[in-house]
Amino acid sequence: VSAPLEFRDPVRAGELRDALARAASAVGREVAVMHVCGSHEQAIAKFGLRASFPPSLNVIMGPGCPVCITDQPEIDEAVALARQGIRIATYGDMVRVPGTAGSLADAQAAGAPIDVVYSVAQAVEHARASDEPLVFFATGFETTAVATAAVLIGGVPSNFFVLSAHKYIPPVMEIVAEMPGTRVEGFLAAGHAATITGSAVFEPFVARHGVPVVVAGFEPLDILAALVRLVEMIGRGERAVVNMFPRCVSRDGNANAQRQLWQVFRPIGGRWRGIAHVPNGNLRLRDEWAAVDARRQFAIDVASLWRSAPSTLVRQCICGNIMAGIASPADCPLFGGACVPDAPVGACMVSSEGTCRIWHEYGGIPDLRACPADSLALQADGRRAGGEVA
Amino acid sequence: MSVATADRILLKHGAGGRAMRRLIAETFLDAFETDPPERAGVLGVSAMDDGGAVRLGDQWLVLTTDSHVIQPVFFPGGDIGRLAIAGTVNDLAMMGATQILGLTCAVIIEEGFPRRDLERILASMRAACDEASAAVIAGDTKVMGAREIDRIVINTSGIGLTRRLVRDAGLRAGDQIVVTGTIGDHGMAVMALRHGLQLETDLRSDVAPLNTLVRAALDAAPGEITAMKDPTRGGVAGALHEMAGKSGVGVVLDEVLLPVRTQVRGVSELVGIDPLFVANEGKALLGVRPDAVAAVLAALRAHPLGRDAAVIGVCVPDHPGKVILDTGFGRRLVAEPDGDLLPRIC
């Protein structure tokens, strides 16, 4: 189960740290780069990587949390359906994300039937076990959208429906790259999504925006190596897509998965929570799938929810700015005080892929660059004693 | 937080983390604190240590109590009976009271509980007592109706004597942190069982009475062990947070040095729970003056329960109350455990 040690080799990490420092100093000014993936942020936080980044390098997490960018009206649709008595199945994190007037968890507390599932296949099993209609509230990026598509193509019972809030990552990078005041000079692309789309999907983006994109894996060495390459490219003014995760990602991706994805979904414009309207950023079911599309099979009375105004706390939440990469949790007056995982105000504190939740999980301070390093003087005897015990 | 949750006791209030300490501070201390809280010759509830103590001549009489509930009652490596003896013996030992004068055993049983299971639990308690050179000398038995209690609850109390009281608040900058063996074994074994993880593993709880092991370490370096705590609920992270906070030092851990069984590491990555946060029932954390580390390690490793003892970190004057992890790739804070551990859901 453990990652192969070759991807967690501290000696190699030291070499990459030095290379990153050289690359950053060659640029000779402050550089900001963005990743768009909760798993990247988790690895960066878990391994304390920011403490080893050069001071002039700022690595920002962008809109990479699928739970966080699910828009309030989409959650409202699920909540409205649940309140109408339709059973909803969805991923655990989605249950607690607040919509305009409460979350699915609130609806559940009021008696609405909600099933937490780990996969779309499990939701189908729940549907098979009953005659009642079941709506799968489908969220996530192309990685989970492919799973939804495959299950629909494989055939589902007639009481199974999909409420799609799936999102497509490449278009939102265009939005972030064009945001006024953006400082982002390069992107780390998420390796798992790229296994499906292929690295070529970013080539038009690079051509349009003139910033480099490096596809990165999720082990600490993957991330460090990708950052070295990205900062070197920024220093040299190179504009290209580089695949630094070739053990999983090819240029053209998984053709079969792409075929299934576009056989079921079509991209349309729509809002990403807290960010903007993203052209082609939402994945909706194609007309051929109208029979399973909850939006076409049920009258969803969303307007009934909109009488409630958001609370004052919610108005102070800066999730949107955090997801756009123009603020960090440290800028939020609620972070770690009024907003904690037990009582989240914003989606970024609900989801295990949200920036706020990840920072909170790793002690609230993501960057220990200021910590004195000389205080670690362990005895050699201890060093021999440690490590894994088989 | 809604009013309803703020007004109710939740599971996290018993999970050994920040929420539990806050509840105790806000309620129990109010009720039980002596006036003044710190008195010569008495270590009371306000210390929130592993037990209380009363001075008797030139010695300290240490007193502690612990109630045990665990699902399932029998688990790989132990059962609720062994846990009940080890838990109380270890709380005494962590304060230096390695000579156990006597234990009590109060049992509350649900109607319908199999008598054979009770006998098996009591035999296991007897065996654990023998390992600790301790004896149960008083007891109490209650039976409640079906579903009024979950199978069986065991409370044990104990008294022990020590010439030198060891606190969990005694860490000083420069002290090294020693753990007496591999971490996360108990919690991961129980969690894997409880959540029905169909894993071909030989995960076993480490539950064991530690008083003879601790005595060996204390005798090897008299006065050089500055603090002790057993990292039970909340794991090593929770125990070190508490020790660092009470002692006014920071603790820097070196992740490479943490002794973790390969099996435990595997399950931990699978369920997304760091072994640092997982309960141990047969391990101790020791703060040791730098000059005494070699002697303490040698004494621990000569004992069957201490073969994997290791230095895992060091106390620093900066970042008081914080636990910092050096991952080999960088450094980060280790969060203070708050509530109960659940495997991640995605």
The span between the termini of chain B is: 24 Å
Principal-axes shape call of chain B: globular
The radius of gyration of chain A is 22 Å
Average pLDDT figure of chain A: 87
- Shape label of chain A: globular
- The parts of chain A where pLDDT drops under 50 for at least 5 residues are 371-390
Largest sheet properties of chain B: 7 strands, mixed
Radius of gyration of chain B: 20 Å
Strand order of the largest sheet of chain A: 2-1-7-8-9
Class derived from helix and strand content of chain A: alpha/beta
How many helix segments of chain B? 9
Key terms for this structure?
heterodimer; A: 390 residues; five-stranded parallel beta sheet; four-stranded parallel beta sheet; 19 helices; 12 strands; globular; B: 346 residues; alpha+beta; six-stranded mixed beta sheet
Describe the structure in your own words.
The complex is a heterodimer of chains A (390) and B (346). Chain A has 390 residues and is an alpha/beta fold. Chain A is 40% helix and 17% strand. Chain A is built from 19 helices and 12 strands. Chain A has helices at 10-27, 38-46, 66-69, 72-83, 92-95, 104-109, 120-128, 142-154, 169-178, 191-197, 203-209, 220-236, 255-264, 294-297, 312-316, 319-323, 347-350, 355-361, 380-385; strands spanning 31-35, 57-61, 87-90, 114-116, 134-140, 160-166, 184-190, 213-216, 241-243, 265-272, 276-285, 388-389. Chain A has a 5-stranded parallel β-sheet with strand order 2-1-7-8-9, with helices on both faces. Chain A has a 4-stranded parallel β-sheet with strand order 4-3-5-6, with helices on both faces. Chain A has a two-stranded antiparallel sheet with strand order 10-11. In chain A, helix 2 links the parallel strand 1 (31-35) and strand 2 (57-61). In chain A, helix 1 packs parallel to helix 12 and helix 8 (142-154) packs across helix 13. The longest helix of chain A has 18 residues, at 10-27. Chain A starts with 9 loop residues before the first helix and ends with a strand. The model of chain A is unreliable at 371-390 (pLDDT under 50). Chain B is globular. The longest helix of chain B is centred in the middle third of the chain and has 17 residues, at 115-131. The mean pLDDT of chain B is 91. Chain B is an alpha+beta fold and 346 residues long. Chain B has a 7-stranded mixed β-sheet with strand order 10-13-9-14-11-15-16. Chain B contains 9 helices and 16 strands. The chains are: A alpha/beta (390), B alpha+beta (346). The interface between A and B is large, with 52 and 53 residues. Strand 12 of chain A pairs parallel with strand 12 (260-261) of chain B, so a sheet runs across the interface.
